[in-house]
Design a protein that fits this description.
mainly alpha; three-stranded antiparallel sheet; 8 helices; about 70% helix; about 5% strand; elongated
Length: about 180
């Protein structure tokens, strides 16, 4: 089974979801296209790791539920050693060659990065607000893992914004010295 399949099962531990909802939740930490998600869900259904319920209001909508067999697979997967995270960041590749760029270009790259981080920060803060508004202790418990992930994303954004500020100061100092 591929990592995406395991992650989809993990998402269903919290609550049953549609494929669309799974795509939204996955966006917190994993990139996957709808086609990948639905292909994986079909395989999980065939293997008996999930079951499907048709939405009463929208007949095209399928709601996926984790089965006991799926829960067992999640528990076993959690015990396996976690792979190192992969990193792909086009911005860092561009900043890496800052020594051949002019000040305005470097500042422009940093400005774009700050705007992107501010957007992500706002999105994650909105998700955090939704969690903060939960009053049912069971719902709070179900969302605890999501809370941890969102807090990490918020803190990463805040640190990235601090780094951008520091990098801008470094650029200013470099070009003052020239």
């Amino acid at each position: 089974m591929n990592t995406l399949s395991y992650i989809l099962l993990c998402m269903l531990v919290r609550k049953p979801c549609t494929g669309y909802e799974l795509k939204q939740y996955l966006a917190l930490f994993w990139e996957a296209h709808h086609s990948q998600i639905y292909t994986s869900l079909a395989k999980l259904l065939k293997e008996g790791y999930v079951s499907v319920e048709n939405d009463e209001k929208h007949t095209q909508k399928k709601i996926y539920h984790l089965t006991k067999k799926g829960e067992n697979v999640v528990n076993n997967w959690i015990q396996e050693e976690t792979k190192e995270p992969s990193q792909k960041d086009e911005f860092l590749a561009k900043i890496y060659v800052a020594s051949i760029l002019d000040k305005d270009t470097v500042k422009g790259l940093l400005f774009e990065r700050k705007q992107h981080q501010l957007k992500l920060l706002k999105q994650n803060q909105e998700k955090q607000t939704q969690i903060d508004q939960l009053t049912d202790p069971k719902e709070k418990q179900k969302n605890f893992g999501r809370f941890l992930v969102i807090q990490r994303k918020i803190r990463i954004c805040e640190e990235e914004l601090r780094w951008c500020q520091w990098a801008e100061e470094q650029v200013d100092q470099l070009f003052l010295a020239k």
